[in-house]
């Protein structure tokens, strides 16, 4: 049984990113263990905490270390990833030499209410994951534009073509991750 951690870069209620994440998770095998990893409670990363980390950091790093693979879904904020997601990446990768993300396969998806579909946030996230020693699935690329037209008021993806596309992408990620996990 593979353990999949799901990191949603938006912390807003009824987030479209959460809706995309749910649609991706729907494509996982039934015996998968899925953990949505909460990032909203993490104090802003500060290197001064490395010697004596807050409990939120320690617990977060433990949850990350316990996962086999990750699904990341990010909104686009000012042509980049959200501050909450950047903070989570930093907290999980520190202190220096104790990177909890290292060696894990990752699926990256982005969404936006604009037509450019969060493409820049997607690539900013990929760039960070390369540095964190995560192997990202390259194809299919998951850019979901005009997401508000594909979802209901609670952020759930309701468009059946989009649901099918995301579930299919996740099935490809399962094969990708299985090769890396062994």
From TrEMBL:
SUPFAM superfamilies membership: Flavoproteins
GO cellular component terms attached to this protein's record: cytosol
Span of domain NADPH-dependent FMN reductase-like: 3-147
InterPro entries cross-referenced by the UniProt entry: Flavoprotein-like_sf (IPR029039), FMN_Rdtase-like_dom (IPR005025), NAD(P)H-dep_reductase (IPR050712)
GO terms, molecular function: FMN binding; oxidoreductase activity
Name of this chain's protein: Flavoprotein
């Amino acid at each position: 049984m593979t353990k999949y951690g799901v990191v949603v870069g938006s912390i807003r209620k009824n987030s479209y990113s959460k809706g995309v994440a749910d649609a991706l998770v729907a494509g996982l095998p039934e015996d998968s263990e899925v953990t949505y990893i909460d990032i909203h409670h993490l104090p802003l990363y500060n290197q001064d905490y490395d010697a004596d980390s807050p409990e939120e950091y320690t617990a977060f790093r433990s949850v990350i270390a316990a996962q086999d693979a990750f699904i990341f879904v990010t909104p686009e904020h000012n042509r980049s990833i959200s501050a909450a997601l950047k903070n989570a990446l930093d907290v999980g990768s520190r202190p220096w030499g104790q990177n909890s993300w290292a060696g894990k396969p990752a699926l990256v998806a982005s969404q936006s209410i604009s037509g450019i579909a969060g493409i820049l946030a997607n690539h900013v996230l990929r760039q960070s994951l390369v540095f964190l020693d995560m192997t990202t699935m390259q194809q299919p690329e998951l850019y979901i534009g005009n997401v508000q037209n594909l979802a209901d008021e609670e952020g759930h993806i309701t468009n059946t073509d989009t649901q099918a596309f995301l579930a299919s992408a996740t099935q490809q990620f399962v094969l990708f991750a299985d090769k890396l996990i062994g």
